[in-house]
Amino acid sequence: MTEKTAKATRTRTAPTAQEPHRWRRELVELAALFLAVTVADTAAKTVVNAPDGPVTLAVAALVLLTTVAFHTWWGRRRRHTAPDAEPPAPTEADEAPTALWRMRTTVREEPGALAALCGALADRRVDILALQTHPLGPTAVDELLLRAPESLEAGTLSHSVSAAGGSDTWLERADAHDLVDTPTRVLRLAGRTAQDPAELPLTLRELLGRCRLRWLPADGEEAPASMTETVLTLPDPAGGRLLVERPALPFTPTEFARARALVELDARLGHRLPDRRERCTLPEGQPITVRRAGLDDLEAAKAMQARCSDETLTARYHGPLRDADRYLEHLLSPRFGRTLAVETASGRLVALGHLLWDGEEAEVALLVEDGWQRRGVGGALLRRLVDAARRARAESVYAVTRASNTGMVAAMRSLGLPLDYQIEGGTLVVSSLLTAEHAPEGAPDAGEHVPN
Fold first, then answer.
1. Do 262 and 204 contact (CB within 8 A), yes or no?
2. Which CATH superfamily is domain 277-438 in?
3. Residue 50: predicted pLDDT
4. How far is the C-alpha of 265 from the C-alpha of 245, rounded, in Å?
5. 310 touches 321 (CB < 8 A)
6. Within 10 A of 337 (CB to CB), how many other CB atoms are there?
7. 98-179 domain in CATH 3.30.450.20?
8. Highest-confidence range of 20-24, 204-208, 296-300, by mean pLDDT?
9. DSSP codes joined into one string, 64-132
10. 158 φ, ψ to 5°?
């Protein structure tokens, strides 16, 4: 007989062994009950037969009721006063500074695997704020948002996870934006995509984390959506293909499905451009309108370039002037960035400002018609472009221009941001980190006199 069978047998036979003693206990309880009734009856008869018997019983009942009422009141008073007690003093560990981490690790799809991981994190005083699970058959990819002690290093945290059964662990510092729960975040990204086609590359990058987006032209038949470990291929509703690359972290089927849903939403909504117009006045008194521009403005943009001097076009494109019109179709496409246009009161387009996505960075570029230069137009455009880059969570912005383009340098300096200058072969690259402590107070007024 095995140990498990013997234990089960003992469990079943234990009550039977105790049955002979059960009737004895019941007889004792019944005898005690009869004795209590006899004593109570004798005491009642004795009191009743006394000269003041009924009065004595009434007084005794009143005393008992008073005692019960006082006991009830005292118990309630203690319950109400309990919260006034001083809370326990916070420990030194509770007051220690913390940091947010995003972590992704692969665990076996079996009972207790996640519990072991949570236990290892708890031993390091790490709090789990959010958890997503991506099932992959025999394994699962767990994505967690963690709050850990500031002193806990990434290597130590990764080693603890590995010891608990995690593998292929990936860690990255998180920020307050990651505290939003996943369904809410995905809905917000869908809303941004619905409002503006230029948001699709940004929402894909925000959805999938640090990744590189590339656009490829269509090569014959439309390629279906596909997925490898490090590359997602998505059909672009505007034509061509979008390639999302993330070599450091393999994609999961769940991420692929979410990315496809965003692209399909953009395709269903079709061609659109938000009609946001900001009317303002230059220092000299001329009213202008700043608005979004797109491929519908291609002909007006070509006409503006035709009115620009060779010097202005050379400072903007750094290449053969005959290719200037060819660049416009790329610049006005919402897949590569965002373009702002400046119109006069008569509706004439006189300036373009481009914000081009470049991974975690963004490039800014300006083209202002000669007659409207050094009147505040370039500075007004540039500040709005930088503000858009900050809202898109770009880490930095940069401008590529000729070293002799003092107008562009002055416009960058007017931002009030710390700038870095790099000059090579007559080409100047001016860049700035978009940190919170150096953020401008908001979109500028176009009336500021900033030379182009």
1. yes
2. Gcn5-related N-acetyltransferase (GNAT) (3.40.630.30)
3. 66
4. 21
5. yes
6. 25
7. no
8. 296-300
9. HHHHHHHHHHHHHHHHHHGGGSPPPPPPTTTTS-EEEEEEEEEEESSTTHHHHHHHHHHHTT-EEEEEE
10. -65, -40
Of 175, 152, 149, 171, which is closest to residue 162 (Cα–Cα)?
171
Amino acid at 409: V
Token look-up 């491929």 returns 295
Q: Do the first three CATH levels of 98-179 and 277-438 match, i.e. the same topology?
A: no
- The string of pLDDT tens digits covering residues 164-201 is 999 989 888 887 777 777 888 888 888 888 888 888 88
Amino acid at 50: A
What band does 303 get if pLDDT is binned at 50, 70 and 90? very high
* In the chain, where the domains are located: 98-179, 182-269, 277-438
Instruction: Flag whether the pTM goes above 0.85.
Output: no
Q: Give burial (CB, 10 Å; 0-12/13-18/19+) of 28.
A: exposed
Phi, psi of 403 (to 5 degrees): -65, -25
Contact indicator for 193, 229 with CB cutoff of 8 Å: no
pLDDT tens track for 224-239: 889 998 999 998 887 7
